[in-house]
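Handover notes (outgoing to incoming on-call)

Open items:
1. FIG006045: Sigma factor, ECF subfamily: sequence verified, structure written out, both below. Nothing else pending on this one.
2. Nothing else urgent.
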Amino acid sequence: MIARYYKDLLNFCTRRVKDRDKAADLAQESYARVLAMQQAGQAILEPVALLKTVAMRAEIDMHRRAAIRQHDDIDALDESHQIAGPRHLQPEEAYAASQAMQAYLDTIDALPERCREAFRMHLFDDLTNQEIAERLGVTVGMVNQYIRRGKLACAARRKALGHDD
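FIG006045: Sigma factor, ECF subfamily structure tokens:
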């Protein structure tokens, strides 16, 4: 499994964090978590989607750890030398990002099975609509409807979260 999906996962992580070293760390952490799940007896039906989902969650954990480390380092400084860190590394922001990510994942999980499968393949596996149609045994038009339904559900969740800028 490692050699088969590593390059795609590394590219996915690199696009997310914009740093090849951090991306390699995320990919390694993702594989470790998925391997632990596999060894615990959990069936893995869509390894690419699972690896990418685990990578996104590992990224959130990475931001949390960075925020905690930054907080610990700031406590050692006297108040006159403390500076505010980047907004995305603040604990509140990391927590909000984690909650938003979970809300989107829950939204996707709530889609009907075929729609959810098509949307995940589109979103996480970067498959073309033709490839998705072939895998699911449906028409490209049906895949378009599934993807549109997934996007509308995520847009509604985005609006409900107040992120409709």
